[in-house]
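Let's practice the habit of predicting before peeking. Look at the sequence and jot down your guess about where helices and strands might fall. Then scroll down.
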Amino acid sequence: MIRRLECGAYLLDALQEETPGRWERLSSDSSLRVSFGPQGLQIHGRTERSGQRRWGVLSCRPYPPDAVLCIDVSVPSAFQGRGNYAVSVRLCGGTPAGLAPKSAGTGADISFGRYAGREGWFHGWSSRSQDFVVRSVDHELGLPALGWENVQFVPVRIAYSDAKRLLDTAVWDGSRWQAVGETHRYLRSLVHVALQVETESAGLEVDARFRRLRLYPNPEHYPVRLLTHGGAESVSVRLSELEAPDRVIAEGQPDGARGLLLWLPPDALYPLGGRLQLLHRGQVLAEHLVRPEGLSGIYPGDVYSTVWEVFYI
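Done guessing? Here is the structure:
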């Protein structure tokens, strides 16, 4: 028997209720309401003033930078009227030892909105390069609108590789990730998460929703670990599809100590589900069925063990 001992995700939040101490509000004025409910985080109302304004939430604590932020976004409102707007998901800059305050205005973002008469998926970022020169891109159109942003939730992703210093943003089109703009060189320490709406005009009818936030370690650098009873030299681990066991998602081998490492596909839509199997010479010794429901499922960095394993984390 296999059981999970530790979830690898840094932050999982359905955004259906406000967790004390997790989020702080961002509000330029009271014209838009920010609320948590069954549909997730909702930012809605009618803007009353012109000029750059912002509403949303910002995470109170920082998280490790070598991570992937994935969240579902829906924009039921048509944003009738003139002016730019953005429904944004942002990884904000954070610094160790409090060298500078966190801000929802710096970092990297993916947003659905309208700029200069163009509507679609945009991305922007600002960062310090190796020589500490600030580089930035603001509101760069990366992908035209999919066409169903107003009728269903669309998963979006910001992925950062700390080892490669590379950042990319993408939208899930129903079967695969579509890049929003190009991959950029980037340098980041700690990060905060911001979910927000930005506008520049009065009279805009706004209804933006966010749900199922997942912030998890970069799968290129953080495998699933299975701790085994006794030696691990003669066993292996495999993850296959629930309904089609012959379709293998990932396979893992011993890590040289007393466990096995399972490297998950970097371009999957997480959380994953499947049959997590411990094998000896092709024969299944133990199996654990994982069904991805809501925020539950398999994430990079998860730790599993056989049920009789005793160890310290």
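How did you do? Residues 229 and 310 are 9 Å apart (CA to CA).
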